Amino acid sequence: MNLSRFKEKAIEGVFFLNGLLVVFVLLGIFWLLIVTAIPAFREIRLTEFFLNHVWNPTSYVQSSYGIISLLVSTLMVTVGALCIAIPLGIGTAAYLSDLASPRVREIVKPIIEILAGIPSVVIGFLGIVLVGPFIAKVFGLYNGLNAINGAVLLAVMALPTIVSLSEDALKSVPSSYEHASLALGATRWQTLIKVKIPAALSGIIAASMLGMGRAIGETMTVLMATGCSPAMPRGFLDSIQTMTATIAIELGEVAYNTTHYYALFGVGLTLFVITFFINMASDIILDKHQKMAR
Amino acid sequence: MKRCLRILLIAGALCASAGHAHAQKMIQIKGSDTLINMVQRLAEVYMQKNPGKVIAVTGGGSGTGVAALINGKCDIANASRLMKDKEIAQAHEGGIDPKRIVVAIDGLCVVANVNNRVNQLTVDEVGKIFRGEIVNWRDIGGADMPITLYGRQSNSGTYEFLKEVVLKGDFSPRTKSMNGNAQIIEAIKQDVSGIGYVGVGYVKGESLNVINIASRPGGEYTSPLNLSAVRGGTYPITRPLNQYINGQAAGDIRDFILFELSGEGQRIIEEEGFFSLPDEYAGFNRQNIGAK
Predict the structure, then answer these.
(1) Contact criterion met (CB < 8 Å) for B177 and A227
(2) Do A249 and B154 touch (CB under 8 A)?
(3) Per-domain residue ranges of chain A
(4) What predicted TM-score, i.e. pTM, was given to this entire model?
(5) Is the confidence metric ipTM above 0.90 for this complex?
(6) N or C: which end of chain A has fewer CB within 10 A?
(7) Does A62 touch chain B (CB under 8 A)?
(8) CATH number of A71-242
(9) Are B191 and A143 an interchain contact pair (Cβ–Cβ within 8 Å)?
């Protein structure tokens, strides 16, 4: 047998196994979450878990395991973060792809990508000492440990993903579109808004959804900056406690194989299902975008 | 910062000792955030006096420490509360026999911002505030502003202690859960409407309004910083700070615990802002440490 052919086959096999491994890891996590979460529902009714808004497993009176306020908290910071990060992200991406000189782009883009590498605990720290007091001052509050603080910090964390992928999407719009638009007498602004962004829209949406996936699963930052009070939030100026923070706080001290322990896995499973669908949706949209671009 | 440095030092010591072929068995201490600074200081002095002995002290909260002891992941669990019956049963199931040693006394401090003029409360009022029944400072003689509650996460022994002894009910779900005593103090210093609770070792040298507490309306309001009030029981929310070990102490663990209870150990405890043990615990501790 030809040695180089054998080598080629072997390498192919290794890569195939790598791919398979990732799939198995994902399935393994999913399976583990399901198996550990199911026992929770022997004692907690599904309606209580998904409809009750009181989460207090270590109550003095009666344990309750309702995740609605946690779910709402998670959605609040995530949506809040996207409201800040998407306009800012698309603006930056448009600037980088259309207006910035190559020199500026060479400097700015890596800087934005470095932003993605800042550890979340550092961002959380900034939330406590910088963003929190600032928010308290602006809104006339006594403290800044609230949902807005979390949303601002998560926006900072989601921004690099959104900018980087949106810029790629804008870049991949065929230049013939731009030339045609300019030739028809449109200004550069009109070309950007009416031609390029719509053409790159699916890529931009996918970028935003990946940013959302990043924000929804973030733990340390929200744990530090949002106050962590499990009551149903009354608005963005209230303290909140996200699902991730709940798991992080409580899993360390919970006794194994108790209802509380299983319930935390239930929270984890819920979160996993949400992020799974977000990622899948962004994947489908991105795929569509690539087909369209071709 | 000081604490980080200590942790680094200990980590360094760990790496150094790991290098030896026959590394000394290290004592792992884990648990309460209230006890951590005090026990770290004790461990430092002990290690200085006994070269070659290695003690690693980490935090995580009383609940985390007790869970680690149950799972056989640490030698000594620091706990600012008692172990629950359920936890003791779990420990026995796993073949662990928890023995309690009392190392110091804490006067639990209820703290507010220095610019808040309320400086005395009854135990009942403290309970009502943290249960969320009193929500404005106006109702307890203060300015007209909402009360912002700062508390600890549920793995904290201080959280459990207050819930069992003072609140006799649940904390208001609006309570912000902070990650340790120091974080509560930082938050209260910034928030004029805030109220929180910390171990007495944490208020020394801080510009805080440490509230005087009376056991009942009309009773004497005393400060947790007052040694005779804490010792004599006029300050109503005092508690023993405990360490749990597996079975009767032996070897290095025994040696370290005897050091903590010695005159020198107790002096260090007072330097750290907590109160040394009254004699009444001597017999109890002797029994749980056991004869050599």
Answers:
(1) yes
(2) yes
(3) 71-242
(4) 0.85
(5) no
(6) N
(7) no
(8) 1.10.3720.10
(9) yes
Please give the full DSSP string across chain B, using - where no structure is assigned.
Answer: -HHHHHHHHHHHHHHHHHHSTTPPPPEEEEE-HHHHHHHHHHHHHHHHHSTT--EEEEEE-HHHHHHHHHTT--SEEEESSPPPHHHHHHHHHTT--EEEEEEEEEEPEEEE-TT----EEEHHHHHHHHHTS--BGGGGTS-S-BPEEEEE-TT-HHHHHHIIIIISSPPPTT-EEESSHHHHHHHHHH-TTEEEEE-GGGTTT---EE-EEESSTTS--B-TT-HHHHHHT-SS-EEEEEEEEESS--HHHHHHHHHHHSHHHHHHHHHTTSBPPPTHHHHHHHHHH---
Predicted confidence band of residue A292 (pLDDT cuts 50, 70, 90): low
β-pairing verdict for B109-112 and B194-198: antiparallel
Neighbours of A6 (CB within 10 A): 10
Q: Per-residue pLDDT averaged across B269-282, rounded?
A: 92
Across the interface, do A143 and B167 touch by the CB < 8 Å criterion?
no
Residues of B in contact with A241 (CB under 8 A): 177
Name the token pair of B181.
Answer: 């005593």
- Tokens describing residue B172: 């208001």
The pLDDT value given to residue B22: 40
> pLDDT per residue over A38-68, tens digit each?
999 988 999 999 999 999 998 888 889 999 9
Residues of A in contact with B167 (CB under 8 A): 60
A142 touches chain B (CB under 8 A): yes
pLDDT of residue A116: 87
For an interface test with B, the pick among A54, A142, A232, A238 (most B C-beta atoms closer than 10 Å) comes out as: A142
Q: What is the pLDDT of residues B198-229, one digit of tens each?
A: 999 999 888 999 999 999 988 899 999 998 89
Best of A58, A67, A260 to disrupt the B interface by mutation (most B CBs within 10 Å)?
A58
Q: Does A107 touch chain B (CB under 8 A)?
A: no
